[in-house]
Amino acid sequence: MSARQMRGFTLVEMVVAMVIIGVGLGGVLLTFNTVVKTSADPMIQKQMVAVAEELMEEILLKPYAIAGTAPTNALAGCGAAQSVRSAFDDVRDYHLYQTTGVCDVDGDAVAGLESYAVSVNVSSASWQGVADTLRIEVTVSRGGENFHLTGWRTPYAS
Q1: Domain coordinates of the chain in residue numbers?
Q2: pLDDT tens-digit series, residues 43-77
């Protein structure tokens, strides 16, 4: 073998290779940074889903309708009289329930979820030909993100 075949890289070749790799890596990292900044936070999405599912389950476990006076629901923060759900005795009592922050059934704030908002809408509907069906819509929001969960309740046990 000749001396020319065994000599390896020159300093100029190494510098050019480092510049090319640096520019390519910089572009990849810039793209990755942009994607991470604009993606929705998975933890926030999971929390919104969990809050909506918990409230939907609570509503669906209530009787279809009980005679009596429905509560007056208005936007309230946790701790206010309107945020207490322990007196809600049927599905229709949840109509127009809305809070700033996530409240438990007694109206107490759930720690760490103060920046969320919850609202419920219960309306009469016809679902798959079943009369007297109630459509329940639970919406949980935080900032510009919203999660909607829809459920149906029929008078099957009435």
Answers
A1: 1-39, 42-153
A2: 888 999 999 999 999 999 998 877 777 777 777 77
